[in-house]
Amino acid sequence: MPQPIIQIDAISKSFGAFKVLDQLSMQVMPGEKLALIGPSGSGKTTILRILMTLERIDSGHITIDGEQLYHMERNGGLIDADERHLTRMRQKIGMVFQLFNLFPHMSVLDNVVLAPMLTKGVPRAAAEKRAMELLDMVGMAEKAKAMPAELSGGQKQRVAIARALALSPKIMLFDEVTSALDPELVEEVLNVMRKLAAETDMTMLLVTHEMGFAHDFADRVLFFDRGRIVEEGKPDDIFRHPKQERTQSFLKKII
Ligand code: ADP
């Protein structure tokens, strides 16, 4: 039996008095394509941010690729994670955000080569060669010299995907990557993600409101409400025959 690449055990996370995640557990198998759906505020983005170490957990355990993300004390408290350990763990994961987050003062090419050069010490020539392959894969090779401000939202997002791939992560996280785009630009980004899903064995977690895409893309869909997984299953089961009342009423509103 292969081991899960992501193992989350009973994690909780509060922002002030608001409990975003409540004893959440989930597993993701290597290569699995997962869609996280559910109402706004149900904690989906927070899970991705926690995996990317952009947010800390209050309690619980997370193992990624066989290694604890954080070291825990016996009493369950977090030991302040060693920055070198976190940097290494982050290299296993690429994340694409809703709002692109490209470095505005750098060319497309420099955006993509930066992380491999800084965090892995890849020489510029090798980093550029790989970056050009990735930009070609997302259809952005001829814009390598352009600055982010010269690009459309869909183009920026495709560059952001190439940048996230530059460290050859085992896991890719996509956080509502099309929700800030004009409708006519959504498809070009979804096409890149379809291609990635078809051509690589990366594990992918997708938070999305695009239910049609979630249905086609995912091996498994998790429906979240109030920091908990209310229902999970194959896309056809969740979208066509949801069992839980909360899933049914959510899908009725959104589809
Ligand atoms: P979802 O992705 O399901 O819409 P989120 O994980 O983004 O939900 O957020 C869950 C809740 O946590 C929201 O109500 C949000 O306002 C709150 N929240 C998220 N991040 C922070 C933060 N850094 N500080 C305070 N509240 C936050």
Task: Give an account of the 3D structure.
It is a single chain. α5 (153-165) packs parallel to α6. With 255 residues, the protein is of the alpha/beta class. It contains nine helices and ten strands. The mean pLDDT is 91. The structure holds adenosine-5'-diphosphate (ADP). Adenosine-5'-diphosphate (ADP) binds next to α1.
Topology as a string of helices (H) and strands (E): EEEHEEHEHHHEHEHEEHH
Helix content: 25-40%
Number of strands: 10
Instruction: Give the cofactors and ligands.
Output: adenosine-5'-diphosphate
End-to-end Cα distance, whole Å, is: 37 Å
Largest sheet: 6 strands, mixed
How are the strands of the largest sheet arranged? 6-7-8-3-9-10
Count of helical regions: 9
What characteristic shape results from the CA principal axes? globular
Residue-averaged pLDDT:
91
Report the portion of residues in β strands: 15-25%
Brief overview, please?
One of its GO terms (molecular function) is ATP binding. The protein has 255 residues and is of the alpha/beta class.
